[in-house]
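Here is the promised in-class demo. Please do not try to memorize the tokens; focus on the logic of going from shape to residues.
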């Protein structure tokens, strides 16, 4: 969204060759494909991650931030409908805004899932075999810091409700110990 916004600010003066509207439309389409693609792939990841071992509800604070972001993009869709006439470029723009609104809203209806093959959080599967260890960090030790074996991303933090630590700890110890 930031890239698209930056292009909208910096490209309107370009009139030679491929115009700024064409570049912006291409960027909106490309980013929409990425967003919709990651949502579709997450459904596939759930199916391949094995049976559910434990699911954890999202903390209220994470839900609120996702809903606010989605609401802002829904408002942007409404403003776009009200202030511009419908054209190919506007339809592409609305398609992109809708993708962003869905991308931020859908995970907050779901839960963090501990499955037979790993942990699913938002649109990512952290496989047990790729986790070297974990720690409980933060206030009330309610954030799960996962240390990964990946060369490009060493850690990730999953925010959980404070009362879930004990329930998850046994499964984490068993699964991570088994994968080492």
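The designed amino acids, position by position:
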């Amino acid at each position: 969204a930031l890239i698209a916004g930056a292009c909208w600010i910096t490209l309107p003066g370009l009139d030679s060759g491929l115009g700024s509207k064409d570049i912006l439309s291409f960027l909106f389409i490309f980013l929409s494909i990425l967003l919709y693609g990651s949502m579709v792939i997450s459904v596939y990841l759930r199916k391949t991650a094995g049976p559910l071992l434990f699911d954890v509800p999202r903390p209220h604070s994470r839900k609120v931030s996702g809903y606010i972001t989605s609401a802002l993009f829904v408002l942007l869709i409404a403003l776009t409908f009200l202030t511009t006439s419908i054209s190919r470029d506007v339809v592409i723009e609305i398609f992109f805004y809708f993708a962003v609104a869905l991308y931020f809203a859908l995970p907050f209806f779901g839960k963090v899932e501990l499955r037979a093959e790993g942990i699913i959080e938002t649109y990512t599967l952290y496989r047990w075999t790729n986790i070297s260890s974990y720690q409980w960090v933060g206030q009330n030790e309610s954030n799960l810091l996962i240390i990964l074996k990946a060369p490009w991303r060493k850690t990730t933090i999953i925010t959980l409700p404070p009362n879930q630590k004990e329930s998850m700890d046994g499964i984490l110890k068993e699964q991570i110990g088994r994968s080492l």
